[in-house]
């Protein structure tokens, strides 16, 4: 469906002062080439200036009448198909601009002809004509706008020429071509071709074929199963059947395209190398419905075109190297039947973008990033296009989210204007100009003198010198200036207001068209260098705001992304949509969706008291369930707390909840009403309140420039109910509402600690989190953090600034990650220094952690390093670590050296099962040795030796036990143990 409007995309028009009747024409970078009819063998060149002004630059002769012509922006050359003596020739005109400087020197050479050094100095000042011989007559040509390569259509084949830059010397670069690929077809006669970025569109009398050449490296048999048939021709043959005529509209995409049954052979004409680049083909085929007519004028295809869209912001200047660096984003293909036209996206995905139904039979059409221009027998018609909408989605992954939006590709197209002309015959496009050739019959000329058919205002300043007889033959070549994007945008917006209160869908449709018009202008490669750059960006934001306004009146979510793209603040949006003092105003879901998202996200905007109260009233009337949540937003900091409590009390009667109670308590704090605060907080148990914060974390924290900021509520809880604060934070972490690092920052800011200092409340949080934590990675991180903090406090003799919420005994009873402290550790610590008593809680928590099986001792060793020499504490840490690592002999050495009183207790607790042998292999020999050295001066060693002998005597056979006794010992000392050993043997 086509929406019909009556806008004014066409501005002034001027007549091109051609000397002879035009037959063919095309546009270059800033020029217009016009080839005359059969009687003339010349091409006239005109400079296109601002506002459609046109100045003659000169002309040059051709070999014969020009049948086809095309200009390449890359390389700035003109290619023609010319006829002479019933033969056709393919020629490229290089360096033609020297003709406008008055030079008449022309060099004619064959393609690939080696440049002689004698020509070097003269090449700068002469035009060069490159002739490209072909085995079959050329029928049509196209130049790739990306790299300047040339494609020539012949009967049953397409020939590709690569544009080459030959560096003669530092001051001279010459352009040439190299034939690189031939595509052979069966029974295909191309009528038109289009070529862009290895995509080829071919029209025949029956259908359209779009080919995509995919580059693959040749290695015998490539992945697609296409076989190399020889080193000289390197032919790639797709296994396809014969061509058949379809009797209904056919659109074959992707793998289905193989069903189109057109055999294609690719012949590479490059010199073969070890790593020859080869191509494989994928294609789309479109065949119109011919069943009612058979083939006739009603089914004739025309105006095939490939339209590239480049990455936004790609800088383009007049320098070729910079132009060639433009990055292709999307590619579109247009082709037309007499009464309908089609635009396909053929880049990353192949899909139909738009279908255009014409009001009358079309003659020719041209697609631009902003418009489709179509000529009929009497009209120049202008339609909108969807290319910028499709390209925007290729470029930006955040399109169609709550962050950004773009009008849909499937939006109905618009006919903006149907401008009357007499006898339109041909059309082309250049920047913001349409070049139109009209040829009128004598009846038309008579009709033209009548005032009933009025064309555009015509500026005749460039043709006043022409005699009336020269302007009467019935042809004219017009340069029609299209109005600026901003001017047409303004007209479309004004037009949309007629539907604003009557038909909102039509209003949105026109505003969407205006938005896409501006978006296309911004995606133009010349945008960065445009004088209108800032104005276009401002208009773009304005169009987003207008679409936001429209969608806010709908039950629709698109108001949010459009308002975001507009750059409007919430306060500005409120002024646009909310009437002052109107308490009965209705608010649609689109507007509420926008407000809810902005308030629930941490937007760095603080509403004034008036605006905040306005938002409060909006939600009370439209969505009261959201009141507790929106009141917790940092944007609502200035809301009147008394009014908020009043509304919350009304809502509570209908929808009570823990979050609502907490929000009332928050508002009570703001008013300073501690009695109300305590009443609300006493409504639920502490565990329920802690879980209530999961429903609305903003009661405790929000963000400012991505940094977490505690609320006044959190500050109050820290002073009055720290246990509830810690429990709530643990609940937030366990429900993925607060990360571990975020909690660190939260408590450090809350307790006004420096970035590196760890407040006790954060340690309380880590300890509480250990109780419920189930993720191994987080568990090990917490264990290391707590270990590090305990070590730091003990080594630095640093007291916690607040009383810990849990004792060691509490943690051991509630958390299996805190283990029972070993008896031998307690024994060592019983001989503690007076200074250790001040840090007893941290010491016992550290020992409890290490005594559990949870912590990875190997990872903890670097953290424990500061306690190496810390008296008995250090000893216990060393021995626990060695024991956990299986280093029992080292542990025994440390105990015998520093605390022999505990060695037997250690052995009794640790040397069991598989470690039992350490008693007689390590402990007993060490005690023998140390007892001999000290004699009777160390009763602890003697006592330990006796205890050890008792164990060993029970465990070993008598012979084994005797072998362990020292040879220089006295029998009397060992007799009791020998007797004990013998008695045990007799009993068994």
What does this 3D model show about the protein?
This is HPS3 biogenesis of lysosomal organelles complex 2 subunit 1. With 988 residues, the protein is of the alpha+beta class. Among the domains are: 2-205 and 300-483, Methylamine Dehydrogenase, Chain H; 206-294, no CATH class. The protein contains 32 helices and 35 strands. The strands form eight sheets. Strands 12-13-14-15-21-19 form a six-stranded antiparallel sheet, with no helix packed on it. The protein has a five-stranded mixed sheet with strand order 1-30-29-28-27, with no helix packed on it. The chain has a five-stranded mixed sheet with strand order 7-8-9-11-10, with no helix packed on it. A hairpin with a 3-residue loop joins β25 and β26. The radius of gyration is 44 Å and the shape is elongated.
């Amino acid at each position: 469906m086509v929406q019909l409007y009556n806008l004014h995309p066409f501005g002034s028009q001027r007549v091109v002062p051609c000397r002879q009747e035009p037959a063919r024409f095309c546009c270059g970078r800033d020029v217009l080439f016009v080839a005359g009819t059969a009687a003339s063998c010349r091409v006239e060149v005109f400079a296109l200036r601002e506002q459609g002004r046109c100045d003659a630059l000169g002309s040059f002769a051709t070999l014969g009448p020009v049948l086809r012509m095309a200009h390449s922006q890359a390389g700035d050359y003109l290619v023609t198909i010319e006829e002479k003596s019933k033969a056709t020739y393919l020629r490229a005109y290089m360096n033609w601009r020297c003709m406008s400087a008055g030079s008449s020197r022309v060099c004619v050479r064959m393609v690939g002809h080696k440049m002689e050094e004698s020509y070097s100095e003269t090449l700068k000042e002469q035009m060069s004509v490159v002739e490209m011989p072909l085995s079959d007559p050329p029928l049509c040509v196209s130049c790739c706008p990306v790299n300047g390569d040339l494609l020539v259509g012949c009967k049953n084949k397409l020939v590709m020429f690569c544009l080459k830059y030959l560096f003669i010397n530092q001051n001279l670069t010459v352009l040439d071509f190299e034939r690189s690929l031939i595509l052979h077809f069966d029974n295909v006669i191309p009528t038109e071709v289009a070529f862009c970025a290895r995509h080829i569109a071919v029209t025949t009398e029956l259908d359209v074929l779009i080919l995509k050449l995919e580059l693959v490296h040749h290695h015998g048999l490539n992945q697609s199963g296409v076989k190399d048939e020889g080193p000289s021709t390197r032919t790639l043959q797709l296994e396809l059947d014969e061509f058949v005529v379809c009797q209904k509209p056919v659109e074959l995409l992707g793998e289905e395209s193989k069903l189109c049954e057109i055999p294609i052979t690719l012949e590479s004409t490059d010199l073969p190398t070890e790593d020859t680049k080869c191509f494989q083909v994928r294609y789309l085929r479109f065949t119109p419905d011919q069943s009612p007519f058979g083939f006739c004028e009603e089914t004739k295809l025309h105006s095939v075109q490939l339209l590239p869209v480049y990455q936004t912001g790609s800088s383009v200047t007049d320098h070729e190297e910079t132009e060639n660096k433009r990055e292709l984003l999307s590619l579109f293909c247009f082709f037309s039947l007499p009464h309908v036209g089609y635009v396909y996206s053929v880049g990353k995905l192949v899909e139909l973008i738009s279908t255009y139904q014409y009001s009358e039979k079309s003659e020719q059409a041209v697609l631009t990033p902003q418009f489709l221009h179509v000529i009929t027998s009497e009209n120049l018609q202008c339609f909108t296009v969807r290319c910028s909408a499709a390209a925007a989605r290729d470029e930006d992954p955040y399109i169609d989210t709550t962050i950004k939006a773009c009008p849909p590709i499937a939006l109905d197209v618009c006919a903006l204007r149907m401008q009357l002309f007499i006898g339109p015959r041909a059309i082309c496009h250049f920047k913001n100009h349409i070049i139109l050739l009209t040829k009128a019959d004598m009846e038309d000329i008579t009709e033209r003198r009548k005032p009933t058919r009025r064309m555009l205002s015509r500026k005749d300043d460039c043709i006043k010198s022409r005699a009336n007889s020269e302007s009467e033959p019935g042809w004219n070549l017009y340069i029609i200036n299209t109005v600026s994007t901003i001017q047409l945008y303004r007209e479309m917006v004004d037009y949309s207001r007629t539907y604003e209160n009557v038909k909102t869908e039509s209003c949105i449709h026109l505003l969407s068209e205006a938005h896409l018009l501006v978006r296309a202008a911004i995606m133009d490669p010349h945008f960065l260098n445009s004088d209108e750059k800032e104005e276009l960006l401002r208009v773009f934001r304005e169009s987003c705001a207008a679409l936001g306004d429209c969608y806010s009146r709908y039950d629709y979510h698109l108001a949010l992304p459009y308002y975001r793209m507009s750059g409007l603040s919430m306060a500005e949006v409120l002024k646009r949509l909310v009437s002052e003092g109107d308490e009965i105003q209705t608010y649609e879901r689109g507007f509420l969706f926008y407000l809810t998202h902005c308030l629930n996200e941490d937007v760095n905007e603080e509403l004034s008291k008036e605006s905040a109260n306005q938002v409060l009233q909006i939600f009370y009337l439209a969505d009261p369930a959201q009141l507790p949540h929106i009141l917790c937003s940092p944007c609502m900091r200035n809301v009147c707390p008394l009014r908020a409590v009043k509304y919350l009390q009304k809502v509570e009667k209908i929808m009570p909840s823990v979050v609502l109670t907490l929000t009332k308590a928050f508002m009570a704090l703001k008013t300073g009403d501690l009695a109300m605060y305590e009443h609300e907080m006493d409504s639920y148990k502490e565990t329920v309140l802690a879980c209530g914060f999961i429903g609305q974390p903003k009661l405790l924290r929000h963000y400012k420039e991505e940094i977490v900021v505690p609320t006044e509520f959190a500050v109050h809880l820290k002073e009055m109910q720290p246990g509830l604060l810690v429990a709530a934070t643990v609940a937030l972490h366990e429900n993925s509402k607060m990360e571990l690092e975020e909690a660190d920052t939260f408590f450090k800011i809350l307790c006004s600690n420096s970035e590196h200092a760890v407040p006790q409340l954060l340690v309380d949080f880590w300890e509480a989190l250990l109780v419920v934590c189930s993720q191994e990675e987080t568990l090990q991180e917490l264990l290391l953090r707590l270990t590090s903090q305990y070590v730091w406090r003990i080594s630095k003799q640093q007291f916690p600034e607040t009383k810990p919420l849990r004792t060691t005994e509490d943690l051991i009873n509630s958390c299996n990650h805190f283990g029972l402290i070993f008896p031998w550790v307690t024994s060592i610590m019983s001989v503690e220094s007076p200074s250790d008593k001040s840090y007893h809680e941290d010491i016992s928590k550290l020992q409890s952690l290490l005594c559990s099986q949870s912590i990875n001792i190997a990872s903890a060793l670097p953290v424990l390093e500061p306690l190496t020499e810390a008296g008995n504490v250090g000893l216990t840490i060393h021995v626990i670590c060695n024991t956990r690592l299986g280093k029992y002999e080292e542990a025994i050495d440390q105990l015998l050296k520093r605390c022999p009183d505990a060695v037997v207790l250690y052995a009794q607790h640790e040397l069991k099962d598989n470690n039992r042998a350490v008693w007689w292999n390590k402990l007993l020999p060490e005690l023998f040795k140390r007892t001999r050295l000290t004699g009777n001066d160390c009763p602890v060693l003697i006592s330990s030796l006796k205890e050890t002998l008792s164990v060993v005597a029970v465990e070993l056979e008598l012979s084994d036990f005797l072998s362990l006794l020292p040879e220089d010992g006295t029998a009397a000392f060992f007799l009791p143990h020998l007797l004990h050993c013998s008695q045990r043997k007799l009993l068994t």
